[in-house]
Automatic annotation (TrEMBL), chain A:
It comes from Rhynchospora pubera. Coiled coil: none annotated. It catalyses: [glutaredoxin]-dithiol + a hydroperoxide = [glutaredoxin]-disulfide + an alcohol + H2O. The lineage of its organism: Eukaryota, Viridiplantae, Streptophyta, Embryophyta, Tracheophyta. The keyword Mitochondrion applies. One of its GO terms (cellular component) is mitochondrial matrix. This is Glutaredoxin-dependent peroxiredoxin. Monomer. It is an enzyme of class 1 (oxidoreductase). GO terms for molecular function: thioredoxin peroxidase activity.
Automatic annotation (TrEMBL), chain B:
It comes from the Eukaryota. InterPro entries: PRX5-like (IPR037944), Redoxin (IPR013740), Thioredoxin-like_sf (IPR036249), Thioredoxin_domain (IPR013766). The active site is at C117. Thiol-specific peroxidase that catalyzes the reduction of hydrogen peroxide and organic hydroperoxides to water and alcohols, respectively. Plays a role in cell protection against oxidative stress by detoxifying peroxides. The lineage of its organism: Eukaryota, Viridiplantae, Streptophyta, Embryophyta, Tracheophyta. PANTHER family: PEROXIREDOXIN, PEROXIREDOXIN-5, MITOCHONDRIAL. This is Glutaredoxin-dependent peroxiredoxin. Keywords: Antioxidant, Oxidoreductase, Peroxidase, Redox-active center. One of its GO terms (molecular function) is thioredoxin peroxidase activity. Its EC number is 1.11.1.25. Belongs to the peroxiredoxin family. Prx5 subfamily. SUPFAM superfamilies: Thioredoxin-like.
């Protein structure tokens, strides 16, 4: 059975991972692409209880605002922790100088893991962290990727976008989640 | 959604690159042979197959329970779990590795970084680990449907040493096979499909004691109850 699966796998070349596009592109409305989707703000359980586990609809995040948003495969993983988040942390003043209202980090993790991770990285002052715990946000944008083979389950690609009043002005998606070439802060700063 | 059916080589490359960071060097140890299809990802010499992983369907919704829930006298279903060793390496381990020829206490929590799990369930077992081992328990392991990275961070956060092994049932395969799934997807708590809270004692893989909670409640699945049962 295993041999059949691996034979089947050979039909899918590693290029399956090599995708640099999504369902949406520059000019599209991010909220319209993901209707009825809400994200969960990273929080501790107690904060969740006191807020009645409220979720944040996309409209609240994007309407009337200039937002830089980036997504990554997972909290506490290598590139995400060591390069992706720090790249935005370091450049937060430059983003503010360009009129960006908020910098958001989103991953397919539950909000409690996201919160613990954000606190560990001491990044909560600069960046707002949200959990797309059921992957709906990324699925709607076709930015989801199945990393079950790496024991991670359904996750998201590594990507970044600049969104003005809900309209995507720039979108960068890495060819593979392990790469970190186009989704860093420096790249998107030039695109704003 | 693309199913990640990759060749063995590109998979291990991808995981290695996903894991590599500048601050910690994490190497995924594996054995890849072109002659034998199953890719070995474990650090122990016991061979096993990766079937449960490759077959995982990417949707989060669980199927209706066609698997009956585990009960005393059943043999534990085999599955592959993952964890970070004390050397910082990502390793996989099977239920067979954890239970064959051993007295194993397995307990499951719905989620890392959630209150009962963090404040009572896991700490309870860490505290009672010595006593449990004195009563002949060889392995104490905590399972959760969280990935190995989150489990490692949680372990460090709670300063858990080697007394309790924290393992990840990242794709929920083991939990599903036990019939112990807890579907919280429609609840606003943001946890998706997790595991019910339970503790069990397995002797050579056969369940001798089982304390399975309804959902995430914490009534009889703690360390003290397990000690009493031994």
């Amino acid at each position: 059975m295993a041999s059949a699966l691996v034979r089947g796998a050979r039909r899918f070349p590693p290029a399956m991972w090599g995708r640099g596009f999504a369902k949406v592109a520059s000019g599209d409305d991010i909220v319209a692409a993901a209707p009825d989707v809400a994200l969960q703000k990273a929080r501790s359980w107690d904060e969740g209880v006191s807020s009645n586990f409220s979720t944040t609809p996309l409209n609240d995040l994007f309407q009337g605002k200039k937002v830089v948003i980036f997504g990554l495969p997972g909290a506490y993983t290598g590139v995400c922790s060591a390069q992706h988040v720090p790249s935005y942390q370091k450049n937060i003043d430059k983003f503010k100088a360009k009129g960006v209202n908020s910098v958001i980090c989103v991953a397919v993790n539950d909000p409690y893991s996201m919160n613990a991770w954000a606190e560990k990285l001491q990044a909560k002052d600069a960046i707002e962290f949200y959990g797309d715990f059921d992957g709906k946000f990324h699925k709607s944008l076709e930015l989801d990727i199945d990393l079950s083979a790496a024991l991670l389950g359904p996750r998201s690609h590594r990507w970044s976008a600049y969104v003005e009043d809900g309209k995507i002005k720039a979108l960068n998606v890495e060819k593979a989640p392990s790469e970190f070439k186009v989704s860093g802060a420096e790249v998107i700063l030039d695109q704003i | 959604m693309a199913t990640a059916t990759t060749t063995a080589a590109s998979f291990s490359t991808a995981v290695r690159r996903l894991c590599v960071s500048t601050s910690t060097s994490i190497r995924l140890r594996h054995v890849t042979t072109s002659a034998r299809p199953p890719t070995r990802l474990i650090s122990t010499p016991t061979p096993h197959r990766l079937l449960p992983l490759l077959r995982f369907s990417a949707t989060a919704s669980p199927s209706s329970t066609t698997v009956s829930t585990i009960s005393v006298g059943d043999k534990l279903p085999d599955a592959t779990l993952s964890y970070f060793g004390s050397d910082g390496e990502l390793k996989t381990i099977t239920i067979a590795d954890l239970t064959k020829g051993k007295k194993t206490v397995l307990f499951a929590v719905p989620g890392a970084f959630t209150p009962t799990c963090s404040q009572k369930h896991l700490p309870g077992f860490v505290e009672k680990a010595k006593e449990l081992k004195a009563k002949g328990v060889d392995v104490i392991a905590c399972v959760s449907v969280n990935d190995a990275f989150v489990m490692k961070a949680w372990k460090e956060d709670l300063k858990v040493g080697d007394e309790v092994l924290l393992v990840s049932d990242g794709n929920g395969v083991f939990t599903k096979a036990l019939g112990a799934e807890l579907d919280l997807t429609d609840k606003p708590v943001g946890l998706g499909v997790r595991s019910r809270r339970y503790s069990l004692l397995a002797e050579d893989g056969v369940v001798k004691v089982l304390n399975l909670e309804e959902g995430g409640s914490f009534t009889n699945s703690g360390a003290e109850d397990m000690l009493k049962a031994l």
